[in-house]
TrEMBL record:
Cofactor or coenzyme needed: pyridoxal 5'-phosphate
Positions that bind substrate: R127, M297
Family label: Belongs to the alanine racemase family.
Function description: Catalyzes the interconversion of L-alanine and D-alanine. May also act on other amino acids.
Keyword Isomerase carried by entry: yes
Species: Deinococcus aerolatus
UniProt-recorded name of the protein: Alanine racemase
């Protein structure tokens, strides 16, 4: 039997707790985004938790492929596609029961009669959707055809300290909804839930990264969110670098003394950012230790001098109790979204209590 050298464990208890807290603050059930392999946490694992969670109405994805994969898992809850499919994909997606995004009269007319649509309204993100003045006509036509189930928009700045534009977007969305029959309206992402709270007239909320335990720093105290993922990898080799010897590509780091090094089976091809070189730390044998030398494609080296470490031991790269994915993102000059979704396929996803 062959084994993975790195494992990402998704905690059901942490995810369940985050979802419960977010739903309570939003005052509505959740449409849980599980795009990008559930933000790197494993689509099947997260869908299983969501399927039994009373505060989750449905699951949202970004691509038709994701919608098909999720529908095949049969989560027992609605699947909503958030970005437009090709025209030729619409019949199959409708047959699978996937809720479809609609932003034009042409798309509205092309829907099969058994489809269910969510009207996409662009209130200022300028990415996808119909402008408010056009969205009303599209929504009314969907209602006439009997296929309108929901309507949604997306906040561009709800995770920023200044909420003026977010409120402006919400008012624009309300103006559209006022001219449509009652629908499953949803607007708030995680930042919106944390900063704006319960919004009048909304029936659902879509917390993405917040569901998985992360909030903008200025909103970190709003809810007790817990990071859901723990990332570990194994020590594959132990050796001593003599005083003055360089380590890894470019010879960026030199041993200040005879140094016991653990080579660990995780690198930038697995999603651990190469730009974290020179700053990254890990937890090994209960201690925080530096990653030394340039991070490689498949591995990295850790100073474990003085620790009782053996080949096969576990090194923790992030988790809820010490170093977090946010720390790693800071070292790599990026954000938690990129770090979590960038985890490669060689990292085995495992369910944890």
């Amino acid at each position: 039997m062959l084994f993975a050298r790195a494992h990402a464990r998704t905690s059901a208890a942490a995810l369940e707790g985050n979802l419960r807290a977010l739903s309570r603050r939003a005052g509505v059930p959740l449409l849980l985004p599980v795009k990008a392999d559930a933000y790197g946490h494993g689509l099947e694992i997260v869908a299983c938790v969501a399927a039994r969670h009373p505060d989750v109405w449905g699951l949202a994805v970004a691509t038709p492929q994701e919608a098909g994969a999720l529908a095949a898992l049969n989560p027992g809850k609605p699947v909503v596609l958030l970005t437009p499919p090709r025209a030729g994909e619409v019949p199959l997606l409708a047959d699978l029961g996937v809720r479809l995004p609609v932003a034009s009269l042409e798309q509205a007319e092309a829907l099969p009669p058994h489809a269910r649509a969510h009207l996409k309204v662009d209130t200022g993100m300028n990415r996808l959707g119909a402008r408010p003045e056009d969205a009303v006509r599209v929504g009314q036509r969907l209602a006439e055809r009997g296929v309108l189930e929901g309507a949604y928009t997306h906040f561009a700045t709800a995770d920023e300290p200044d909420l003026a534009f977010a409120w402006q977007q919400f008012r624009r969305f309300q103006d559209v909804l006022a001219q449509l029959p009652p629908v499953l309206a949803h607007a708030s992402n995680g930042g919106g839930i944390l900063s704006l709270g319960a919004l009048p007239g909304m029936r659902l909320a879509r917390p993405g990264l917040a569901s998985y335990g992360f909030a903008p720093p200025h909103l970190g105290g709003v809810l007790p969110l817990t990071p859901v993922m723990t990332l570990d990898a194994e020590v594959t080799h132990l050796h001593t670098a003599l005083e003055g010897e360089s380590v890894s590509y470019g010879g960026l780091w030199h041993a200040p003394r005879d140094t016991l090094l653990a080579t660990v089976g995780l690198g930038y091809a697995d999603g651990y950012p190469r730009n974290a070189t020179g700053q990254a730390h890990v937890t090994v044998a209960g201690e925080r230790r530096p990653v030394v030398g340039r991070i490689c494609m498949d591995q990295c080296m850790v100073d474990v001098t003085g620790l009782p470490v053996q080949v096969g031991d576990t090194v923790r790269f992030w988790g809820p109790d010490a170093i977090t994915a946010g720390d790693v993102a800071g070292w790599g000059g990026t954000n938690e979204y990129e770090v979590l979704t960038g985890l490669g396929a060689r990292v085995e996803r495992l369910a944890a209590p």
